[in-house]
Write the C-alpha cells for this entry.
Amino acid sequence: MKQNVDTISLSEYADKLEDQQIKELEGKIIARSLIAQLEEGRQPSYKRGKTTPGVHLMMGDDPRLPEMPENPTFMDFVRLRFSIGGQQHLLQSARLAQKAGLPEKIVLACLLHDVAVSGFIRADHGYWGAALIEPYVDEEVSWAIRMHQCCRFFADPDVGYEYPEMYHRMFGEDYQPEPYIVAEYERARKHKWYMTARQICMNDLYSFNPDILVEWDEFEDVLGRGFKQPSEGLGNDNTSASHMWRTLRRPSNAL
Ligand SMILES: [Fe+2]
Ligand SMILES: [Fe+2]
C-alpha cells in the first residue's frame, strides 16, 4: 500500500527517497549536504553504517545534471548551472548600467553582481559572489559586489537611491538589517570605491522583466576584457575560488 508522507517520519521519508535515488542513479547514493538539509528545515543527523555491497556514495559527475566540459569557462557555468531568471537579472542590470553611460568596470560589476544568487547560494550572496570571481576580475569589481550586500539596505538621497520599495514586501515593513550589515555599510561608506557598490544598487532591477530577453552576446566583449578566464578551466586553476567552481560543477560529491 502506498504510504502518505504525512504518516511516516521525515527520516523514513528521506530513506525512501534515498532508495528511489539509488535506483535512478545506478547504485550511487547521494549524501545530501548539510546546507541542503537545513534548507528543508531538517536538523541533520549523522547516519551510521548502512553499507550495501556494491552501493557507493556519489562522487564525480552527477548524472542528473548537464555534463560540463573538462575545462569549463564562465559561460559554460552560466549555460549549464545558472538559473534562467537569474541570468536575465544580471543581463538586464548590466544593460541598464550601459545605457546610463557608466564605465565598463561598473557595467561588468552589474553583470556579475548577483552571480551567487544565480549560480551558487542566496544567503550572504554579495560575499559569496565576490569570492567566486575575485581572482579573475579587477579588485574594485569584486569589492563592489561584496559591498552591494550591505549598501542596498541603506538609502543615499545624494545620488537618488531610496530603500527599495520591494524590500517592504519581501522582508516586511519593520525589517531591520542585522548589525553586521550596518557595520559593513559604515565601513563601505568611507571607502574610495563606495560609489561603485552604490552604482550596482542603482542599476539593480530588484527583479527582471520577463518580456525582455537580453542575450549574453551583448556583453561578450565586456566579459572578455574584464573577466580573466583561466585556460585550464574554472575549478582546475588552483585559485582561492577554484573549490567553489568545483562544488558548483559537482555539488553532490559526498566529500
Ligand atoms: Fe544582490
Ligand atoms: Fe540584483
